[in-house]
Design brief:
Chain lengths: 317, 274
């Protein structure tokens, strides 16, 4: 069994809207696949099909080698799902939520309780376990939700925008959990609108737009799509921005840009040109507070591929 | 609130192994989910207002507004009304399952249930079973109200319990119709509105409030067909004396029929709903 899951040519229509227009996705066991795309690209629809919640109109999807339509019941024993919105029952306590899932997964009551206790402790919810989930903070709720998808020790976990709406520090918590899962050998499908998140967690990224995969590769490979590297300089004296820009343009032979106030960037062909920039800035006596050579961000990749700015907006589709 | 840093490793010497399928899944899963709805009801007791305070208000209004005019005195009327209003209250309470399922479906927790290896009907059966508590609460609150007002059980405790069992059984069967509504309609408000439209002729188009012999023919026909009317007459028979068997047959036949039609339709609609 090579792939933890694979989807071929998935098509799903809702009335006149085509949510998926022949989507292919696959990932090997023990890896994290980031599925990146704007709102309405079809990310959630794809997850719902792989998690057996929706039937595709066309195409085929396998999880652990089992067909998600024909073998749905067996697929459900292999997967864990964490939806876009925290899918725990708010009236139940954290403990009751996890015990319920355990019982639905055919654990005996005492086993379900033991597993729930174990997970609550792992996710820093041991003390909160006896409180109703509606009293939890957003971060705690998300952790409980993740814990709920792990009760059955799934091989494959689907995380549909797991950090949407969380503030950055809580996001880090979730990221650490995902990294922990991977070290356990679990395969993860992560959908996100946050390029940073895909960059931080995913081994491979599939960029989808309008229900189709438009690029696939490691984060580094995708960054190469935009090509080359970028030099970024921030002169200490903002008055010397124009001079800095002239130096960068001179070295690179391509026009420099100022993407934000006080900063100039230019694409370069390699680190030799970076050294050149350093030398010329020193010659001109321009001191800088920031000077770096970097691969383009996934943001830029995304823009190149889709022609749309990825929104960092937490309003989800 | 303190945020603990999460140790990202799962315990390798885990105490609980990966769960294995066990027999009688549908029964166990449905009961586990019934327990869930029971916990929810207990946690939000204001959901029980319609089966506690509301029936008491009905009893008071009807007894004191209509009692003198219809039966000549309020005590006589209470004897006549209480068994029937018990049926009305419990039957009314069956709407809530559809409404709460409709609300639940919009929440992520149902997606989780669907992604689990459980029978597709388990979440529905669980909700319907869990809501049996509402019928029990309704019956108890009416019994207390009746006793305070001076209701006298003529037949005995066992026949009265039989009346309760028949009523709850019928409401259980009927509730599947509202579960179906809950599956196919978009909004909880729409489920409630539609259900009540059905509910009024079912519960008021009966001999609950007054004898039916002065009704126009078409209405008499309706009362004769209406299973709730028969349930009310059977409950009267079982609590204050009178014919039971004929009415009971109607109730059982209708109940089984409703269950046989609406339960599979509801499960099918749930399966199709995305």
């Amino acid at each position: 069994m090579d792939y933890a899951f694979e989807a071929h040519g998935l098509v799903k229509r809702f009335g006149k809207t085509t949510a998926l227009a022949g989507l292919d996705l696959s990932v090997r066991q023990g890896r994290v696949l980031g599925v990146l795309g704007p709102n309405g690209a079809g990310k959630t629809t794809a997850v719902r099909i792989l998690a057996t919640l929706l039937r595709p109109d066309e195409g085929r999807a396998l999880v652990g080698g089992l067909d998600v339509v024909k073998d749905a019941a067996r697929v459900r024993r292999l997967i864990g799902l964490t939806g876009q919105y925290a899918s725990v029952d708010e009236d139940l306590t954290g403990m009751q939520n996890l015990v319920l899932i355990g019982q639905l997964l055919d654990l005996r009551k005492d086993e379900a309780r033991a597993r729930a206790t174990e997970l609550l402790a792992e996710f820093g919810l041991a003390e909160a376990g006896g409180r109703q989930a509606k009293t939890y903070s957003g971060g705690m709720r998300r952790r409980l939700d993740l814990a709920a998808s792990l009760v059955g020790r799934p091989d494959v976990i689907f995380l549909d925008e797991p950090t949407t709406g969380l503030d950055p520090s809580k996001r880090d918590d979730v990221w650490n959990i995902v990294r922990g899962l991977v070290s356990d050998g679990v395969t993860v499908l992560l959908t996100t609108q946050y390029l940073e998140e895909a960059d931080a967690l995913a081994d491979e990224i599939t960029v989808i737009d309008h229900g189709r995969s438009i690029a696939h590769g490691t984060p580094a490979q995708l960054k190469q799509i935009v090509g080359g590297q970028t030099v970024l300089a921030r002169p200490a004296d903002p008055g010397r921005l124009a001079e800095t820009e002239a130096i960068l343009t001179g070295v690179s032979g391509r026009p420099a840009e100022s993407p934000s106030r006080g900063v100039v960037t230019v694409p370069v062909d390699g680190d030799a040109q970076f050294t050149e920039v350093v030398a010329r800035l020193a010659q001109a006596g321009i001191s800088v507070t920031e000077l770096s050579l970097r691969l383009p961000s996934l943001d830029e990749v995304f823009f190149t591929l889709t022609g749309e700015r990825a929104t960092d907006d937490s309003a989800a589709a | 609130m303190t945020t603990t840093v999460i140790p990202p490793v799962q315990n390798p010497e885990a105490t609980v192994a990966r769960p294995q399928p066990r027999p009688f899944g549908l029964v166990r899963h449905s009961l586990a989910l019934a327990r869930r709805s029971l916990i929810k009801t207990i946690r939000t007791p204001e959901q029980l207002l319609d089966v506690t305070l509301q029936p008491i208000i009905f009893v008071m209004l009807f007894v004191f507004l209509l009692g003198g005019a219809i039966a000549g005195d309020t005590h006589q009327y209470l004897q006549f009304l209480l068994p029937a209003i018990m049926v009305q209250t419990v039957v009314f309470a069956s709407v809530a399952t559809g409404v709460s399922l409709n609300t639940d479906l919009k929440k992520g927790v149902f997606d989780r249930f669907r992604s689990l290896p459980i029978g597709r009907s388990a979440p529905l059966i669980g909700s319907v079973l869990g809501d049996l508590i509402r019928y029990v609460v309704a019956t108890v609150s009416l019994a207390v109200c009746g006793l305070v007002l001076g209701f006298q059980l003529v037949t005995g405790v066992l026949p009265a319990l039989a009346a309760v069992a028949m009523t709850i059984g019928f409401a259980f069967c009927l509730s599947w119709a509202f579960v179906l509504l809950g599956m196919v309609m978009r909004e909880p408000g729409a489920v409630q509105g539609t259900a009540f439209m059905v509910m009024f002729p079912l519960t008021f188009g009966t001999g609950m409030m007054a004898p039916t012999d002065t009704l126009p023919g078409w209405l008499q026909t309706w009362v004769h067909i209406n299973p709730v009317a028969h349930a009310m007459e059977a409950a009267r028979g079982l609590m204050i004396g009178g014919p039971v068997a004929g009415h009971l047959v109607w109730v059982v036949v209708w109940g089984v029929g409703l269950l046989a039609v609406f339960a599979p339709l509801a499960v099918r609609a749930y399966r199709r709903r995305t």
